[in-house]
Amino acid sequence: MVLKLYNSLGREVQPFRPIKEGEVKMYTCGPTVWNYAHIGNFRTFVFEDLLRRHLEFKGYKVRQVMNITDVEDRIIRGIEQFKKTRLELTSFYERAFMEDLATLGVEPAEVYPRASENIGDMVNLVKVLLSKGYAYKAQDGSVYFDVSKFKTYGALSGVKLGAGKKAGRVSADHYEEKKEAADFALWKAWDENDGDVFWETELGKGRPGWSIECSAMGLKYLGDSFDIHAGGMDLKFPHHENEIAQSEAATGKKFVNYWLHSEFLHVKGEEMHKSVGNVVYLRDLVKSGWELLTIRLFLISSRYRDPIDLTDAALEQARAQRARLVDFVARLKAPGPPLGTKGSTLAKGFLSDFEEAMDDDLNTPRALAVLFTFVKKVNSMIDANKLDEAAASEALAALERVNGVLGVLEFGEESLPPNLSELIVRRDEARKRKDFAESDRLRKELLASGVVVEDTPGGTRWKRVSKG
Ligand SMILES: [Zn+2]
């Protein structure tokens, strides 16, 4: 089966063909470590993880690079605001980011290069662009990319250079609100607002622009041309457009074959914005009692290039779905009767339907429907006493393989009989409404049945203890 992906470059679904057979080189724009990443950012990171895992499911060897942006306008503002050094600020948020990724079950990339450790490569790239006439030096010593020299500028985003108009010049790292092509800063000459964030280089005293960071690290760690570049929709212009211009102007080769962008996450129907005050962090959801894998299941419940709306109802639905899956695993692990069944064709059909759904540009709603149809079918066979041990273990193996892509189950998870899991849910609810007398009473009732509950940052955990 052929994987098809929606390529923002060309704006159509295309069959995926890697440059080198069996291998995929992929660059995913990483976080700017000036603050915690919010849940919208994690939607993108989980989509990229899903893409990576599906490529691995299909047998590709993946080399993924995710940069850590530790030099950028917002970091300089953060240094001033929090009275920290650049390193103190960025290493704190980098560590928090890595923890969040791991708790969401995101597979690590092969390389996490930091911008601050690749300044020399950025300087060299800017020098090439100057020598080829694509860049020019401004009076203050900053270096700008001349977008009028790069004829295909705008091919990715559709943004055009005004006819006969000279592009304006922008030195800010973020200017998406303008929606028009502009000469952008490759190198920013130091000014006093930068404080002690600068490097003394052949280009003078200063720091790189944000987009040159990604071009330099992409070219360095993946080569002049590679397969996939992914990121959130908000990065398409100007960031990715600039990356293409810088890289292709310097190498004369096509930078990236497939550009993938994930849509926005909304909160209760509204766009998430600092100004609206509705920015949600992963840690907020965990504090409200949502389990991490429930959050992950919610994040993949819409296809990556459709919008997704964060609501309690949507999280509750993901929680209920995950509970069904955990229960299903427990039923498959319980010994079945030694009967001949059609288990093998069932599992095979399930795997190929799942692969087909994911090959359809990572159509996760369809893939989840395939999964729950399988759960329903197998459950009814168990109910009818028609699933023998061999078929059950085949079903379990198929489920593990699918979960290798979705990552919403931990196979060590044991499930409780429904009456006890019901008590855990009721106790969670009591805690949420701060009815601590009731939650304590339920805790004791569970303990009497040999179950200890613990409240952890990742949600409620339970384990069995011997009674008495
Ligand atoms: Zn980037």
Shape: globular
Q: Profile the largest sheet.
A: 6 strands, mixed
Distance between the termini: 56 Å
Count of helix runs: 14
Helix/strand-derived category reads: alpha/beta
User: How helical, in percent, are the residues?
Assistant: 40-55%
Bound molecules: zinc ion
What oligomeric arrangement do these chains adopt?
A: single chain
Radius of gyration: 25 Å
For the structure shown, list the relevant keywords.
four-stranded parallel sheet, single chain, six-stranded mixed sheet, globular
Please give a structural write-up.
By secondary structure, the chain is an alpha/beta fold. It has helices spanning 39-57, 73-82, 86-103, 119-131, 210-222, 236-251, 282-287, 292-299, 312-333, 343-359, 364-383, 389-406, 418-432, 436-448, and strands spanning 4-7, 12-15, 23-28, 61-66, 135-137, 143-145, 168-170, 182-189, 199-201, 204-208, 226-232, 256-262, 265-267, 270-271, 308-310, 451-456, 459-464. Helix 5 crosses helix 6 (236-251). The protein is globular, with a radius of gyration of 25 Å. Bound molecules: zinc ion.
